[in-house]
Specification:
4 helices, mainly alpha, 137 residues
Length: 137
């Protein structure tokens, strides 16, 4: 294996680790409770930020090649694009699955509780109309 091949392989590994690092940091912050008062919004913001960052990183090699003649960054364009897709998918899945589904589920739960409360109130309260009629007779 030549020195250039070894260098490229190490660079591929470094780019891959750099691409996985934001997801690991989001997971670490979620586990230790460091996402703040609204953790779903924080996760959505971070995933969206990294999706856009990797999208720009995947588009930048073309501009670098045209403007400066650099061809080396083009080797990592596909990996950056795949990470952009990965973070955009996680962003969308978190929004749809956690934020929206969780909101619908919470509304269903609160609706059930309200119905149960009304039933309990009706069962345990005295029959006001019946008592009034009984007093009139």
């Amino acid at each position: 294996m030549s020195a250039a091949t070894s260098w490229r392989r190490r660079t591929w590994v470094a780019v891959f680790v750099a691409g996985c690092l934001p997801a690991a940091l989001i997971g670490f912050d979620a586990l230790r409770g460091g996402l703040g008062a609204n953790p779903i919004a924080e996760i959505l913001n971070r995933l969206g930020f990294w999706a856009l960052t990797f999208l720009l990183a995947s588009l930048a090699p073309t501009a670098l090649k045209i403007a400066l003649g650099w061809t080396e960054p083009a080797r990592y364009r596909r990996m950056a694009g795949l990470f952009a897709f990965f973070y955009a998918f996680l962003h969308f899945a978190t929004y749809l699955g956690v934020d929206q589904f969780g909101e619908v589920h919470a509304k269903e739960q609160s609706g059930r509780r309200l119905e149960e409360q009304i039933e309990t109130l009706l069962r345990e309260s005295p029959d006001v109309c019946g008592d009034a009629k009984a007093g009139q007779e």
